[in-house]
Amino acid sequence: MEFPIADMDLSKISPPITFGHIVDQYLFAIILLLIIFSGLAFFILLLKKRLSSLESRSTLLEAVMNSIPDAVFLSDNNASIFSSNRAAQSLFDYDEKETIGMDLLRLSTDDLSTTDSELKIFIFQKNNGESFPGEKLTCEIQSEQGNYLGQLTLIRDVSIRLHQQEMQSQLQKMSELGKLVKGFSHELNNVLGVISGYVQLSLATLGMKSPEANLNNILKATMRSKNLIGQISAFIPTSSDEQNPLDLCSQVKQGVFLSGASDHKNITTTFVEDDSQHRVLGSPTQLQQLVCNLVENSCWNLQESGGTINIEINHHQVTKPHRLSHGLLTAGNYSVLSITDNGSGIADEHIAKVFEPFYTTKQKGEGPGLGLSIAYNHILAHGACLNLATESGSGTTFSIYFNALENNLAVNAQ
Predict the structure, then answer these.
(1) Are residues 348 and 333 in the same domain?
(2) What are 37-81's pLDDT values in tens digits?
(3) Mean pLDDT, residues 345-357 taken together
(4) CA-based angle 403:408:410, to the nearest 5?
(5) What is d(CA 280, CA 248) in angstroms, rounded to the nearest whole number?
(6) Where is the domain boundary, 112, 136, 157?
(7) 328/278 same-domain check
(8) Does the pLDDT at position 131 exceed 60?
(9) What is the dihedral of CA 62, 63, 69, 72, to 10 degrees?
(10) CATH number of the domain that residue 86 is part of
(11) Is 82 contained in some domain?
(12) What pLDDT shows up at residue 315?
C-alpha cells in the first residue's frame, strides 16, 4: 500500500520527546516543590525553637513555684485547679495528679470564693480529714488584653504561729495575775503570821480549862490560808525559776516523792524510763511541782477505788508538725513524760475547764482547784506541749512533750 506524502498534514506530527523537553516542562514544578520543602523545614525548625522556649519557660515557672515554701494553687475561672506546687501537695497530703481538676473550694469548710487581696485566716482541711488554720491570699490572672484567665491562691499554715501567740497570751495573763497576787500575798501572809503567832503563844500559856479547841481551829484555818497563798504564789515568776539543762528523770522522781503517792496503801505507783538520756531545759522547782500536782491529781481520783499510776519517760521523734490536745508539735526530738492512772477519767463537760484557775470538781474544803492550772502554767513556761487523753470510766493520761537538748550540753542534776 502506498501513502502519498504529498497528501499528509505534516503540522500534526509531534516532534520526538527528549530529556530537554521534560526538564523544560517540569523545571518550574521542581523549583516550586523545593521552595515549599525549604519553607516547611524552616517552619519546623522555628516551631521547635518556639516549643523549646515554651518548655524552658514552663520548667522555669515550675521551679519558681516549687521554691515557694507556702502552698500555691493555679485555678481556672471555674475554680478548677490545673497546677500546684510541692508545698501545696505536702501540706494538703495530695498527689500532683489528685489536685488537677479538683475544686479549689473543697480545701476549706469556709467560703473561699472571695478574691480579696488581703490576707485572711480560714480553716482548711487536709486529705486525711485533719484541719488547720491558714492564711489565704488570692490574685486574679489576666491576659495582656485584660481577659480573666483564672486565679493564683497562696495558702500559709499558721498553726505554729497561732499556738505561739496563744502561749504568749497565756503567759502574759499569768504574769498579770502574778503581779496582782504578789502584793496581796505579802500583806495577807503578814496578818496570818501575826494571828498564828499569838494563837501558838496563847496555847502555850492557857490551862486545861481553856478555849483550846477553838484556838486549835483558828490555827488550822490560818495554816490552810497560808497553804492557799503558797499555791497562788506559784504563778509568780521568781529568780529561782531560771531554766538550766537538767536531767528530766531525776526531777520527775523527786516530784513523785513530794506528791506523797507512796503514802496511799491502795495505790501502786510505777516508774519506767527508756535507755535514752533525757536532757531538757527547765527549772527544778517548777518541774518538780508540775509532776507533784499531776500525781496528786491522780491520787485524788484513786483515793476511794484504789488503782495504779504509771509514769513513763520516752524519746519521741517528730518528722512533721501535728496537733495535740493542747499545743502543736513541730519537727524535732522530744522527751515525753506520761502520767497515767486507771481512775474514773474526766467527764466530757469538764475537759475544757480542767486547767482553769480555781476550777474544781472536789467538795468544799478538799482543795481550791489550782493544781492542774499551776501544772499547765509550768508546761507553758517550759515551751512544752501537752496531750490529754481521757475517757470517762477508763482513766486519764497526761503526756508532756519537752524539747530534748543535745547530749553535749552540761546537765544540772539537782
Answers:
(1) yes
(2) 666 766 777 777 666 665 666 676 777 778 888 888 888 888 888
(3) 79
(4) 85
(5) 6
(6) 157
(7) yes
(8) yes
(9) -10
(10) 3.30.450.20
(11) yes
(12) 92
Same domain, residue pair 293 and 394: yes
Give CA–CA dist 49/255, Å, rounded. 74
Contact 191, 147 (CB under 8 A): no
pLDDT 10s digits, 326-336: 888 888 899 99
Give the chain's domain count. Answer: 3
**pLDDT mean across residues, the chain:** 77
Mean pLDDT is lowest, of 108-122, 129-143, 153-167, 345-359, for 108-122
Residue 396: CATH number of its domain: 3.30.565.10
Q: Which three cell numbers stand for residue 2?
A: 502506498
- Enclosing domain of residue 92: 65-157
- C-alpha cell of residue 276: 535514752
Q: Which three cell numbers stand for residue 165?
A: 501567740
- Reading the block at residue 136, the C-alpha cell is 489565704
Between the ranges 206-210, 316-320, 353-357, where is the mean pLDDT highest? 316-320
- Residue whose C-alpha cell reads 500559709 in the numeric block: 156
Q: What is the pLDDT of residue 412?
A: 47
Model pLDDT, residue 398 = 93
